[in-house]
Design a protein that fits this description.
This protein has about 450 residues and is α+β, with helices and mostly antiparallel strands. The protein has helices at about 10-25, 290-305, 320-330, 365-375, 390-395, 410-415, 420-440, and strands at about 30, 40, 45-50, 60-65, 65-75, 75-80, 85-90, 105-110, 115-120, 125-130, 135-145, 145-150, 155-160, 165-170, 180, 190, 195-200, 210-215, 220-225, 230, 240, 245, 265-270, 310, 335-345, 355-360, 380-385, 400-405. It binds zinc ion (ZN).
Length: about 450
């Protein structure tokens, strides 16, 4: 699922594009350092997205002064790596303003008998596939007679002569877990993350500000519309708030569920970190996304053997947005959400070992139970249980942890991680810990 804001009329779009153009001319404040692939963020807050387009989910934000490493540039978007190993994208032209998240909301229909879908907006670019007449595609934007579209979960291009803009987008993204407007029954309360947060009349930054909310305010959740929540405050006033300025920490259910007395009765969501276009931490022989999938699949079989209801956020090399991962957990009312990752640092061989992260205070018990087990017979050092501001934990209303099971750019860790014995150790430790957690 990708979430979208509304741009109801073409006029709004023109105004929006004019604003972007104005901002890009006047306040372009990204400093590209000549000697290395680093940009320094000069604005107060910048959205980092899961893909190179405004329609992708916001995964996190970075604040002014922070330096981010650029992996590559693609169609005016920077693919970047954050300090916590997350990969994201930032629009080069949006650096310098805080609130832009408006997304293209248009649908295009292929008007030619057959149209080539290309990796870039020119005739020499690689053909990714063909679309036949009548195929509907999400349109991101158009420039120089080329239309940028979403195609099989990636950004692609088609000649503008071969596609007609036909309608407002409904719910047409291939990975569909939630409709555009829905009611998430696992959410009741939204907590405002910063002072003076705008509550608007509609689900877009183009809508007027009705009132402001203070840091720590609890808002009553009504429904979800794209990247926005419809809310009611304590005075009974309703409005819309952007999902990246609130968190769901007020919704934590006490864990474990009272009616579960053993692991076999539980629903466990296993989240193999990264995947598809997001390789995670790079390594000489394999990427993080491969390592996480291997561990996740082995853990899944182990739990299934024990009769556990297992849900995997991915079971192949697919890109799944962070938002979808949390959503899967929330919708399934998971009794535990286990996100599997492998770490890396800027400097190789700097750190070694495993770390267990939690975000919500209520999840500390689950984190400590798992980490305790990971300390037994671990061939690698154990770095303990820590607070971590990870999207899949923060936006999760279910008991959730994120495990970093070793450093891919540490020579010792890397030689250990992929061995059958280490994989068995990791799987067995998590299994035992969950057993203890649900029977205590
Ligand atoms: Zn990772």
């Amino acid at each position: 699922m990708k979430k979208f804001n509304k741009l109801k009329q073409p006029r709004n779009l023109i105004v929006f594009l004019a604003i972007i153009l104005f901002i890009s001319i006047t306040t372009f404040s990204t400093l590209v350092l000549a000697n290395q692939n680093t940009i320094k963020v000069d604005a107060s807050v910048v959205n980092i997205r899961t893909g190179p387009g405004l329609s992708y989910d916001i995964m996190t934000q970075v604040v002014g002064g922070e330096k981010i490493n650029i992996i590559k540039e693609e169609n005016e978007w920077y693919k970047i790596r954050l300090s916590n190993d997350q990969i994201g994208w930032v629009a080069s032209w949006l650096i310098g303003n805080t609130e832009f998240s408006a997304a293209s909301n248009k649908l295009g229909t292929i008007s030619a008998e057959s149209a080539n879908i290309r990796s870039e907006g020119n005739l020499d670019a690689t053909i990714l596939g063909k679309a036949t007449k009548g195929t509907e595609l999400t349109v991101l934007f158009q420039q120089n007679n080329w239309t940028q579209i979403q195609y099989n979960g990636q950004v692609a291009w088609v000649s503008s002569d071969l596609i007609e803009i036909t309608a407002e987008k409904k719910s047409i993204i291939p990975i569909v877990y939630s409709p555009k407007t829905n009611e998430d029954t696992s959410i009741e309360i939204l907590t405002v993350r910063s002072e003076g947060t705008n509550i608007r009349s509609g689900p877009s930054v183009n809508e007027s500000v009705l009132f402001k909310a203070s840091k720590g305010d609890n808002l009553t959740y009504i429904s979800t519309e794209g990247e926005w929540y419809k809310i009611k405050n304590s005075k009974g006033q309703t409005g819309y708030v952007a999902n990246w300025v609130v968190d769901l920490s007020g919704n934590q259910t006490a864990a474990p569920s009272a009616n579960i007395s053993s692991l076999s009765e539980a629903t466990i969501v296993i989240d193999a970190g990264h995947g598809g276009e997001d390789p995670g931490a790079p390594a000489s022989s394999y990427n993080e996304k491969q390592a996480t999938l291997k561990t996740a699949m082995a853990l899944s079989s182990r739990l299934k053997q024990a009769g556990v209801n297992v849900i995997l956020t991915r079971n192949s090399d697919d890109f799944v947005s962070l938002n979808d991962r949390a959503y899967i957990s929330n919708q399934a009312s998971a009794d535990a959400f286990i996100s599997i990752h492998y770490d890396s640092t800027e400097i190789p061989n700097e750190i070694s070992g495993t770390t267990t992260y939690y975000y919500h205070e209520n999840d500390k018990n689950l984190a400590e139970t798992i980490n305790k087990q990971l300390q037994i017979n671990n061939p690698l050092p154990n770095n303990g249980t820590r607070f971590g501001d990870y999207y899949v934990l923060r936006e999760n209303t279910r008991p959730s942890v994120l495990l970093e099971l070793g450093y891919l750019n540490n020579t010792v860790d890397q030689a250990t991680i992929y061995t059958d014995s280490y994989q068995a150790f990791a799987v067995e430790s998590i299994y035992q810990a969950l057993n203890n957690y649900f029977s205590s």
